[in-house]
Amino acid sequence: HILNRAQNAAALGLNIPSAEADWNALQARIQQVMHRIRGGTPEEAVRKNREQGIEIISGEAQFIGPNEISVSGQTYRTEQIVIAVGGETSVPPIDGLKSAGYITNREAIFLPELPERMAILGAGPIGVEFAQMFHRFGVEVTVLESEDMLLPTEDQEVAEILCGLLSDEGIRMEINVDLQRVRTVQAGKKLTFRCGEGDIEELVVDEILLATGRHTNSEALNLKVAGVKLGKKGEIVVNDSLQTSVEHIWVAGDATEKYPFTHVAHDQGVLAARNALAMLHKKSKPQSFDYSVIPWVTFTDPALAHVGKTEDELREDGVKYRSTCVKLEELEVAQQKGETNGVFKLLVSDGGLVLGAHILGYEAGENLTALVLAMKHQIPVESLAQTIIAYPTFSAAIRWAARKLVNEQA
Question: Which domains does the chain have, with CATH numbers?
Answer without folding.
Answer: 97-214 (3.50.50.60), 296-409 (3.30.390.30)
